[in-house]
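Risk register update: the risk of archive-format incompatibility is retired. Evidence:
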Amino acid sequence: MRVAAVTGSRADWGLLLPVLRAIKAHPQLQLMLWVTGSHLEARFGNTVNAIITDGFAVDGRIPLQLTTGDTRDTAHALARAIGGFADHIGEDRPDLMLVLGDRYEIFGAVQAALLAGVPVAHIAGGDISEGAYDDGMRHAISKLSHLHFPTNAEARDRLLQMGEQAERVILSGSPGIDAIVQTPRLSRDQLGAAIDFAFQPRNIAVSFHPATLDYMTPAQQVQSLTDALQQLDPNIGIVLSGSNADTGGDVVNQALQDFAQHRPNSCFVQSLGAQRYYSLIEQVDLLVGNSSSGLYEAPSLHTPTLNIGSRQQGRLHGASVRHCAQDSSAIREAIEQLLANPPQDFTNPYGDGQAAQRIVDALAAIDNPRSLLIKHFHSTGAGVAQATPAPGGPT
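Archived output:
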């Protein structure tokens, strides 16, 4: 079975990597890799090169001419994604498309797949992140998909509430935990040399992105963060990573770069890549921002998270994740409290590090991918007849 996997940014690449390695190693599956989004943009670090370094051939490139100034730019990029993926699907005819997450380039890919009659397997559907338009796209992707791999039981239940058939919703856990287990980490000295940063006795990492549905503008959001960071003890080391290619992302990146240039013991890195990012989170005392990695992956690295604002509102989280308002005083106080009295429970609700194997086993069990195309809305309402599942899908 020819599986076309789509990656649009460093955010999904680190999570997809264990799954794609397992697909490559499986005798019944053939991987095609299509790369799009910020991977192909110089100002986001040309992270397609990291994909090649990880040992993968790039079978298709779908450039989106990204700018992140306003919603019109994002809408035009989405339109280019639909057209670009339509071309590649028409030329390469995969048996199934594999996607992860909730970003607009992924939304474009699955729209093209739907029109072309290519079934879609979706990882990480059913989650909630109420502060960003990604939330709506994630649920739309789920309804356009035919096989689901939610990362937690609450997400699985939401997919069932959305009418997805139970036998097509397979609780896998997050492959991000697999990636943590499989990725060797750099020592503090190695990491410091790699990013040109001198670690201090206490250090924090910052991963912050625009909350695209928030009442505050991206400039106001990042200003509240940098104001809080500026008030911290200057002897605290701060490593800031670049924002995703979202609406307002350029504003956020410029503010973070400006902060790092003027504050001692700070540095800005546009794209760390998986190994350096996991190494950084493991080395620091606290992860600050609004990235899903703070909820998904930081607990498995035994690092507390301060989640700021509305972007991840509603998403499942463990005891090591604390929340605060998008307010400079609240952020500063929460950072100082967590550094002084960090949590001790790092239980991760997103699985056990075996997600990739569950996903690949389910893909390999599909006898006839096209049989997945006919979806039945599963309803538990009184008096509603239950449709018979299509044959040939995974068991």
